[in-house]
Amino acid sequence: MTFVNGAEASSLAGYDIDVVHELSRLWHAKAVITTMEFEGMFPSLAASRCDMVISGVMRQAGREKNYDAVPYLASSMVIIARSGTPPITSLDALSGKTIAVEAGTSYAALVEKENDRLRIAGRPPILLQLYPTEDQVIQQVLIGRVDALISQDVEVYFRQKQLGGKVSIILKPDNPDFRDFAIYIRKNAQERALLEQAIAELTQNGTLETLAKKWGISGKQAQIFNDRSTSSVFNVAVFFSALTSWAFVKGAALTLIVALAAHFTAILISIPIALKLNGPRSPLRMLLSAYVAVFRGAPTLLQLLFIWNALPQFLPIFRESWFTPFLATWLSLSINESAYQVEINRAALQAVDPGQLLAGNALGMKTSQAYRHIIFPQALRIALPPTINEFISLLKTTSLASVISLQELLAVTQIQVARTFEFTEYYSAALVYYLGMVFLFLFLQKRIERRFAWADRNKATANGH
Length: 465
Known about the structure:
MetI-like_sf; transmembrane helix
């Protein structure tokens, strides 16, 4: 329905993308397409960050309580397993089995309802595993971690080209909540009428059916899964192609830029806070202590999602186009990292003998001069190793930004995996990039520590002997 057709994240393709372009043509408008994780789409629609959600989303009564939904493609829910798995006649046949579904979809609620019936009947429940994307769900079936997955028929009709006959449909349950894909908009009778009129026109003139045939998802084109086998051997050519691709280079560069910018900002924020926390008790000190505790205690991913999805609902200015995923990531990681950096700097400052500040004042230095020439150089040597370690951790934490569509290294990797299903090769290429960046900063850490070794009293004493 929607995927990246090539190395560039902007090269979007799929049935939904073509539908968007057809709507744009009818309305003489320009479509701005934004990609994001499934779970972030409806919060973004509610926050007016986008005007329409079209991404293989089913029409369901629960969603229509808050949004208008206009159906545009008939579909059917399917249970998929590895090729050779015998067909089943109902969902209860999955009792005691493990299945995978995409997080944020309604499949999990469907399974829970079925589990309630199984428990009443005294049978084992269906074991459920949630994964963030559809391609990761399919991977679990391919590697044998789960027995089956729940998806829609159009997904597997298209995925045959990538899966090479490794999976098959074992059940097509009829459920009214999984019969149509729909376009969702905010509640607005006039806009709903315009959208319904446009979809009706595209249906009557055969445009939607032509697009369905183009992408191999038409009900008339439902293909039978072939028993073709594809090689599962590590493809060295694909690995080196990914390793040298411009998309991976840009993804790694963006990862590094975000980490450097966020950590530099965090250090600037943390220094005055650390100085204040080492000072006398005051209401401001208590407030800053609470700041550190909150941002150290809250999960980084939650903070990132809050800033991207929840903040625009309180402050409409953050709904504007200037507030990009890069800025949201920078802001979130800077605030989060500053809470950890405060503790590093505070401990380093406390480790410096307080008598040295008094000595500086006795020599006629101002307090600011004493900190600049005496306290900070010694505290820097103490804070440097944990600061670099914290940066390395932050470098890896940037991968969370993929959930708000920032095209950093992990997001680029997941795009290629979703397109080709050669996950071992692409994950290995990403690992090489991450290790390369980490080892570079570990090397720099050793060199910097050696440079500041003169300030170590123990080493200085040893050299004196």
